Amino acid sequence: MTQDVEKVSLVGAGPGDPDLLTVKAQRLVREAHVLLHDDLVPAVILALATARCEIANVGKRCGSKGITQAEINERMVEAARRGLRVVRLHGGDPAVFGRLGEEIDALEAAGIPFEIVPGVTAGSAAAASLGVSLTDRRKSSRVIIVSGHRATKAAPFAATDWKEVAREDATLVVYMPGNNFMRLREELLGAGLSPETPAVMVSHATMPAEQRAAATLATIHLLPHMDSPAVLLLGRSLDCRQRKQDARLAWKEAELILSSL
Ligand code: SAH
Questions:
Q1: Catalytic annotation present for 163
Q2: Residue 162: C-alpha distances to residues 137, 219, 233, 240 (Å)
Q3: Which of 44, 204, 231, 232 is the best mutation target for the ligand 1 pocket, counting ligand atoms within 8 Å of the beta carbon and taking the most?
Q4: Global model pTM greater than 0.70
Q5: Domain extents in the chain
């Protein structure tokens, strides 16, 4: 007897706070037979799966096991063909820096149906924690999401042309920003962005270990080292009254305050 192929669910787990999981994501995790998750998905979310569910960390940091993207794709296809309900659980939103495109291609090539369930992306979560709007018709008419990563052979478009994104009318959200902002500072200042532009780094947004540090573009290289995962936000829309009143965030030069919630 041939087994019916199951649909694969490519699901966003949100930034870490289990309350920010969508109702649909929650249901799919509960119903999953196979759960393939990123490093960033916290245990409290994985705990929603049943005891029978086969759970595997397929994240990049799981380096010892060295699972490749091709192997992740194979596992999804093989389990779906066996009629198992597969949830590929990405941190944040699967469509933002999540190799979702490669997974879609693999599933389509194998003739496996799939659905995509969006999640709250880290940049939105960080803005919410800071109490700011990413766009603000008075200050910022666009949001630019970029990666701080260097380009590689496999990802030739990963490198950001900082001159291109240095815009007074944009909020820049840098994923995987690293901790060395000397080059970013030089390039953005060189491209004419104001040294007064507010910059905030948020690490572990929405999680118990959340930390935030504030600077301006001029002092961005002085931001303290913060643990991954972290995002860096830059732009005038971060300059709002609520943030100024927040004693934990100071904007004056050399007055960098690290806050723990
Ligand atoms: N798909 C994810 C991004 C994956 S790339 C999303 O939509 O959020 C991984 C990067 O996302 C991390 O290096 C970090 O820059 C960012 N990130 C993910 N979760 C985060 C969190 N809780 N707080 C801050 N940054 C986070």
A1: no
A2: 23, 17, 14, 24
A3: 231
A4: yes
A5: 8-117, 122-241
